[in-house]
Specification:
The chain is built from 11 helices and 12 strands. With 363 residues, the protein is an alpha/beta fold. The protein is globular and about 70 Å long. It starts with a strand and ends with a strand. The structure holds 5'-O-[(R)-(carboxyoxy)(hydroxy)phosphoryl]adenosine and zinc ion (ZN).
């Protein structure tokens, strides 16, 4: 399809209520005309994780205003849209349903196409929105709810190469922060402490390195950290500021090394497809130590490394609008009777990964 397309994207699958307007003109770099993200961290903070009922209610209350704001900031109206893309899964079903119902109503009122988007496809296609990356490329999705390697072959063709069989790395950072009385979300706090610590003092496990492929496991790390913390408490009656820094540094080094080794394996697994780029998405991609390791690994494999701006790495509406736009452009005809799906693996042929994180079932 070679005409200008303007899409509204709606995202409500976890703890961010988001809407955005994206426009693509033929042969030009796509433009994000607006992107509004209303986080819910304050609502869930007291519970140490996302509470599905609270999330669903907050989405239902905020979605209308979020969409209005996105249209206003883009200086456009529903009448100017060529379609509405909405996250139809995977995620917490109450939130997904809120977004789908709103999008369905708006699309019906204006008789415009409604495009169901897989949330993970939104993340996986973002490098094409930000940097026009060509297929095929490798994507490492690494956040509080997701951790998987994908070979992105086409708009609707993804091959899952591996992923976590239990916790996502962001979850491990958050649990580590909790065990060490650091604030949530844990990632930035643990990274700041780690920068001042000695990573060689504590050696934490690097699970599944002996297993072929690029599946990962992060749940044992928190147990190891808990043991190390408790041993210090038993020995000295508490942990010092330097102990905490060293624990954080040891933990972060373990996560970074596992991700780096498994990334090298994922790239080797698809070397016959000659991907030119390794892209990352998800909140954990903000971590400088992890980013640096991944960059080294991809350069060593002769592949470019791409980390889109953080606001587009974490949950947002622009990635959903863009994924919908790519589908329309590729000529897919949206099916009106789709359902919202709590689980929706991008690669339906890959065996299910075990486990489910604090942010809902992993796909
Ligand atoms: O992608 P995201 O905003 O939300 C979802 O999980 O969907 O990712 C949030 C996760 C949290 O677990 C947070 O602790 C982690 O990303 N995170 C980090 C850093 N910044 C955020 N983890 C490690 N280092 C960071 N600098
Ligand atoms: Zn996400």
């Amino acid at each position: 399809m070679d005409r200008t397309l303007t899409l509204l994207g709606i995202e409500s699958s976890c703890d961010d209520t988001a809407a955005a307007v994206v426009r693509a003109r033929p042969g030009q770099t796509p433009e994000i005309l607006s992107s509004v993200v209303l986080g819910q961290a304050d609502l869930h903070a007291a519970f140490g994780g996302v509470v599905p009922e609270i999330a669903a209610r907050a989405h239902a209350e905020r979605l209308d205003g979020c969409v209005e704001e996105a249209l206003a900031q883009a200086d456009t109206g529903l009448g100017a849209l060529d379609g509405i893309a909405v996250t139809a899964g995977p995620g917490l079903i109450g939130g997904v349903l809120s977004g789908v119902m709103l999008a369905r109503g708006l699309a019906a009122a204006r008789s415009i196409p409604l495009i169901p988007v897989n949330h993970l496809a939104g993340h996986a296609l973002t490098p094409r929105l930000t940097d026009s990356v060509a297929f095929p490329y490798v994507m490492l999705l690494v956040s509080g709810g997701h951790c998987q390697f994908l070979l992105v072959e086409a708009v609707n063709r993804f091959r899952r190469l591996g992923g976590t069989i239990d916790d996502a790395p962001g979850e491990a950072f958050d649990k580590t922060a909790k065990l060490l009385a650091l604030p949530q979300p844990g990632g930035p706090a643990v990274e700041a402490e780690a920068a001042l610590g000695d990573a060689s003092r504590f050696h934490f496990p690097r699970p599944l390195l002996d297993r072929d492929g690029c599946d990962m496991s992060f749940s044992g790390l928190k147990t190891a950290l808990l043991r190390a913390r408790d041993a210090l408490v038993a020995e000295k009656g508490g942990i010092s500021i330097q102990d905490r820094r060293d624990l954080c540094a040891g933990f972060q080094a373990a996560v970074a090394e596992v991700l780096a080794i498994k990334t090298a394996r994922a790239l080797a697994m698809v070397s016959d497809q000659s991907p030119k780029t390794l892209a990352v998405a998800g909140g954990v991609a903000a971590n400088r130590a992890i980013r640096a390791m991944l960059e080294t690994v991809s350069l060593r494999a002769g592949i470019a490394f791409l980390a889109p701006p953080l606001r587009l790495c974490t949950d947002n509406g622009a990635m959903i609008a863009w994924a919908g736009l790519e589908q329309l452009r590729a000529g897919f005809v949206p099916q009106p009777g789709f359902t919202a799906r709590p689980r929706w693996p991008l690669d339906e042929t890959a065996p299910a990964l075990l486990g489910s994180g604090k942010k809902g079932a992993k796909a």
